[in-house]
Amino acid sequence: MFSVMRSVVELFGYEEYDAPIIEPLEIYLAKSGEEIVNEQTYTFEDRGRRKVALRPEMTPSVSRMVAARRQELSYPLRWYSIPNLWRYERPQNGRLREHWQLNVDIFGVEDLSAEIEIIQIANQIMVALGAKSDMYKIKINSRLMMEMVLGDYVGIAPEKHKAINHLIDRKHKMESSEFDEAAKEVLGENPESSSSLTKLNEVLTKGSLSDLPERAKLLPNFLRLEKLINALKQAGIENVEFDPTVVRGLDYYTDIVFEIYDNHPDNNRSMFGGGRYDGLVGLFGVEPVPTVGFGMGDVTMKNFLELHNLVPTLKPETEIYVIMIEDVSEHAHAVVSGLRDNGVKVAVDWMSRKTDKAIKTAVKKQVPFVLFIGHREVNDRLYTLKELASGQEQKLTIDQIVELIKKSRN
Amino acid sequence: MFSVMRSVVELFGYEEYDAPIIEPLEIYLAKSGEEIVNEQTYTFEDRGRRKVALRPEMTPSVSRMVAARRQELSYPLRWYSIPNLWRYERPQNGRLREHWQLNVDIFGVEDLSAEIEIIQIANQIMVALGAKSDMYKIKINSRLMMEMVLGDYVGIAPEKHKAINHLIDRKHKMESSEFDEAAKEVLGENPESSSSLTKLNEVLTKGSLSDLPERAKLLPNFLRLEKLINALKQAGIENVEFDPTVVRGLDYYTDIVFEIYDNHPDNNRSMFGGGRYDGLVGLFGVEPVPTVGFGMGDVTMKNFLELHNLVPTLKPETEIYVIMIEDVSEHAHAVVSGLRDNGVKVAVDWMSRKTDKAIKTAVKKQVPFVLFIGHREVNDRLYTLKELASGQEQKLTIDQIVELIKKSRN
To answer: What was the ipTM of the complex prediction?
Structure first.
């Protein structure tokens, strides 16, 4: 899975970077949103009594790194990483969970080209993993447009937008009555609240940009969003759609956000996503750098591949398991070296035990071939190669074995 | 460097494993030796008030993992990993240093074949990294044999062996008078101390097995060591030698230990090593499992490669940098996709800036080719490809570009 990710992002010119796994807690407090920092982050004091955290996400780290070298880096800067991240489970569980996440970011591009490229990469990885376009959807929204719609059309005061956004982000996990209750609480007691709630629900059920209120269509961010969706369709990505409920849980996104949804009936939910966050690098005391990126976790992707029967069958790396039917260790070394020098991956059973036990081990390890070596084999320089799947045995020279293994790779 | 390591260990049939980076402190206290745990390990309390550590080494983790699945695993078990490890610098410095280390272990083999295989792998990696046999030495010793020599011949009481071993391990970093002082302190005030010190220094300067005292030569571990060195020489590894001062700092080794020494006059020291540790798995409450392994750190290896001029020149992954000389973004997407679909790694300059600035970026990023696209190029379907090193420019179709890039890879 990671090798597929790597090969796709490198086709797009991205370079790998690495970052520390322990960071000062402050870098997450600024913009990640409260939930992720307070409830899900593993924090502790280091020996110098500083509050530090095992990184729960990569975006603040990479932003800090870009900020530190802002002048010397050349843009567009394309960086990716597959870091391990940690999530601390809620107290009743208390486990520390390590997981991996591909992070892909482009720095320095204000233009919509950055969003197009980033979403193309996300889509290309899905395709490379074997997903068909009817298995998933790419849902896109503009936070800036939504902010204007929430304020101007729905009538929600700006200071309540953050709370409403967090609520919208969780909408899919709630009953509609539950959502309404929570929204009423945020909107507060005032004469317009009930009409706002009606309008909010109306806006959030719009399935296409053309259904939005007419005045929304005049907003520059509406046009930007429309242009993005059209450009992606033109680039052959059919399963792109506008979704007003996509806002992303993290506070640092500034405009376009997107999520990749699983269409499978048993897993109808967001798998991963990203968006534009032009402000984060600037938080580290330098001029801001426009940025678009996404993160793609290993756990949700594994789940997707399993549900859609896309998990590739893993072949073991080892190709030949060598078993000595008599004690010929000293000669076996030369045979084995001869194979390895030709790139054949060989494991030797050094256990001085009965042959059938050794064969069982080879079967358990799923090594495709077994090679038997005894005194006669050493004398004749002809070794017995057995293909475990077919049971077929042949007496072969080292050169012939190498040739056969190389053929069997295709 | 890591990809070379990976390819070698997989030739020997090793499979990759992964382990948690935070472990309960106890697993290091048992057998790692005091220095590594007390002074160099980064420890803290987790939320459940347990003492935990950022792993300073991998061996205790892998031993615990094998112990937990002792029954279901099949032997010989060949495992490798390239974990990140942490070392906490002494208080005056106070930094936390992350580094990487290849760890290779074979479990379940009592026979000397395990040592032969493990040392062959260590040597094979050196060879694959470009090292010649005169650049480094493989120094081997047997802890059990040394223990008997220290007790029986030198006359040191068994309870002092651990302290003497730690001292011998640091001998290379000390003046000989300093070593003598420290040794006297360990030996204590008794009539035999001075004769013991003389004998100790005599034994520690022996350069070959045949120079050891006659009664040492009757020990079974002497014969084992001799057999190992002969087997390695027979396998074509010429730069193997016995060294009585090789004892390894970690307490868990039980018999054969080895170290790879840099022969470079500016860096005449041990780079990495390993040995047999048959007792560690058994510490986790199961029957012991014979084990031989080694660890190879990135920092010392990088140092070695630099000193010996073996660092490979790193080519950037990206092959073409696309620059639009006019605003043709919409068409550029198709051109770029055409290249990527054929496996060419392409980065696009989405900066809408002057061409010479974009070229500077390509040069800085060391991308070998620049592709210019403007209106005429889009119309003619002929794009200008410039090789930056030679300055040579050609007008080519996408197919021709793909062909040229593929040729340029060799």
So the answer is: 0.77
